[in-house]
Amino acid sequence: MPTGSRSAALALALAVLVAAPVHAAGGGGIGPDEIVEAVRGYIQQIGQEPKPKPQAIPADAGGPTVDLSDLTQSERVEQSVRRAAPRPGPDTRLTVPNGQARLGDFTIGSDQTIGGHLLVLQGDANVYGRLLGNLVTLNGDVNVYPGGVVQGDILALNGQVSSRGGEIGGEASELTAPPPGPSGAEAGAPSPLARVGLGLAGVFGVFLTTLALGFGLVLFARPNLEIVSDTVTHSFGRAFMTGLIGQILVLPTFGMLVVGLILSVAGILLLPFAVVVYALLMLLGVVGGYIAVAHAIGETWTRRRMAKGAMIGSPNSYRYLGVGLAGLFALWFAWALFGWVPVAGELMRAAAVLVTWLLATVGFGAALLSRAGIREHFAGRLIPPEALTDEYLWATPQFGVPAVRRPGARAPEPPK
Questions:
Q1: pLDDT digits (tens, 9 = 90+) for 64-120
Q2: pLDDT tens, position by position, 346-369
Q3: CA-CA distance, 16 to 32, in Å (whole number)?
Q4: Cβ atoms of 390 and 377 closer than 8 Å
C-alpha cells in the first residue's frame, strides 16, 4: 500500500476511535464492537498489499494448464496453481479446462449463472448467483451469500471459506501453505555443510550434558556408580534381560501405583508427589545406568591398555567415564558427519539408535539388579581370587594374591 494510503487509513482509524459516539445498552450510535471491527479492518489494510485490478486472465493454448475437475487432493491442486501462476499479475496467462480464471476480486451477481469451474487469483470470490462447477481462490476468501449456489467443491488457498446463507453442493476446504521457490521450503532446506554443523553441535551438546551428569555421579555417588558399572561388566546378559523386562513393566507398575494411591484418602493427597518421584526414579535409572555402562567400557579399555604396558597417568573414575562416553558417542558423531548421505546416513542413524537403546537397557537392568548400586551380588566382587585374570590383578594389585600365568605361557624351569 502506498505511504499516502497508509497514512489516510491510519488517520481514519484514529478518527473512528475519537469521534464515534459509544452507545449505551439499548441506545443509538456505534458500539464498542463496531469500533473494534473498524479499527481492525483499517489496520489490516495498512499491512496488506494492494489487490490487482479485477480482470479476466486470457487462456493460452501453449501455456500452463490448471485442472480444477478434482479438488480432493488439495495439495496437488495448490502446487498446480502456484506452478502455473508463481506471481499472479496482469501478464499472467493460463488455461482452466472447462472453466475460466480471474485476477482480483470477482463477484457472481444474483442474476448470473456461470457454467464450468472458476479460478480466482489474488482476490475474493463473492457468490450471489450460481456457479455450476468447482471454485478455487489463491490469496483470497470465498463468500457465498443468500441466494448464491456453488454446485461443486470449494478450495481456498491461503484464504477462508464463508457460507453466509448460501448453498455449497460439494466440500469446502482451506489450505494455507508457503509458496515454493527461492523463499519457500526448498530455499529453507539447509545445505549438507549446515546439516553437518547442526548435527555436530547437537551431539556435542548432549555429550557435554551427559559428561557433566556423569562427573556429578562420580563426585557424589561413586561407590554406587562403581557397583552398577561392575554389574554391567560381570552380568551383561542378565542386566539386559532385567532391563528389557523392566521396560515392559514400567507402565503397569505406574498404573498399580496410581490405583493403590487413589483407593486411600491420604494416597490421593500424595498422588502428585508420587508421580513426580516415580518419573524421576525412572529417569535416574535410565540415565544413571547409561552412564554406568560408559564407566564400565572406559574402565575395561583402560585396564587392558595398562595390562599391555601402557602408562596411564591417573586411572580413576573420571577418566573411565570420559573414555567410555567418547566411545559411546563415536557412532553419533559419525552420523552427524555423514548423516546427509541419502542411504548411509539413515543406516548410521538406525545403528546409533539401536546401540544406544541396547546399552541403555543394559544400564537400566544393572541399576535394577544392584538396587541402584547398593547390592553387590551381581557385581563380580564375590568371586574367588583364583578366578581373577592376571590382566585384572596387574591393573588392580591385590595384596597376598599371586597373579596366575597367562594362557599358553611356558612354566619356568626349576633351577638345577
A1: 999 999 998 888 999 899 998 888 888 889 999 999 999 999 999 999 999 999 999
A2: 999 999 999 999 999 999 999 999
A3: 11
A4: no
pTM: 0.52
> How many other C-beta atoms lie within 10 A of the C-beta of residue 156?
25
* Span between the terminal Cα atoms of the chain, in Å: 111
Distances (CA, A) of 137 to 125, 159, 173: 7, 7, 11
What one-character DSSP code corresponds to residue 64? -
Q: Is 257 helix (H, G, I), strand (E, B) or coil?
A: helix
Three state DSSP letters for 204-255: HHHHHHHHHHHHHHHHHHHHHHHHHHHHHHHCHHHHHHHHHHHHHHHHHHHH
**Owner of C-alpha cell 464515534:** 20
CA distance 171 to 155: 8
CB contact at 8 A, 13 and 43: yes
| Cβ neighbourhood burial of 8 (10 Å; 0-12, 13-18, 19+) | middle
Q: What is the DSSP string of 263-305?
A: TSHHHHHHHHHHHHHHHHHHHHHHHHHHHHHHHHHHHHHHHHH
> Could you tell me the three cell numbers for 189?
532446506
Q: Under a CB-based contact definition with an 8 Å cutoff, are residues 139 and 158 in contact?
A: yes
DSSP 8-state symbol, 189: S
- Could you tell me which residues are beta bridge partners of residue 22? 30
The residues spanned by each domain of the chain are: 3-47, 55-177, 192-395
